[in-house]
Amino acid sequence: MLYIIRHGETELNRKHVLQGRSDHALIAKGIDQGRKAADWIRKEGISFSRVYSSPLKRAVQTAECVAPGITVVTDERLIEMDYGPYEGMSLFKPGKEVLKFFRDFANNPAPDGMEQLSDIVARTGEFVESIKEECIGTDILISTHAIAMKGILEYLDRDANGRYWSKNIGNCEIYKVACTDGKFGTPESVFKINES
């Protein structure tokens, strides 16, 4: 089984800023979210044989919270979307070209300087294909970021047609995907932190 988790909260998440590839650590709340995810994993009886992560601190820290004692293997293909000149932009005051993109990810290309969604699907899909054989009969964890995670889900669910781009994936939300006979099943959200 393949499990995919979005990292816990950072200071820039809290401030609603596009952090992209800037390397920020988890705040106390993010560490607590990771512990809650770890508690759920323990209660489910899940035991990871391998843990992969984006190289950015927030994803590595989340992986370490969720799967303590297991070596975290980082891979650049799991890194967050490159927001280019828009990195650090407040989501309360997005530029009109960014707002247009965010209103309809599936049908509007990313603004100039941003990584295109098709490229994210290609690189994350390439990573998932590279570990497909490992997922048979064992549990694997991937710790990544919201947009990179959506890229993985779009890749795995061939009928998605952009459905995941507009989904809100919360901090430390977990999806699972079955892998049998060398084929991946349909992704399913299995854990969310209730923030209300």
From TrEMBL:
Gene Ontology MF term list:
fructose-2,6-bisphosphate 2-phosphatase activity
Residue positions annotated to bind substrate are 6-13, 58, 80-83
* Database matches in SMART domains: PGAM
Which residues of this protein are catalytic?
7, 80
BP GO annotations: negative regulation of glycolytic process; regulation of pentose-phosphate shunt
Q: Which UniProt keywords apply?
A: Hydrolase
Question: GO cellular component annotations, sorted alphabetically?
Answer: cytosol
Q: What is this protein called?
A: Fructose-2,6-bisphosphatase
Source taxonomy: Bacteria, Bacillati, Bacillota, Clostridia, Eubacteriales
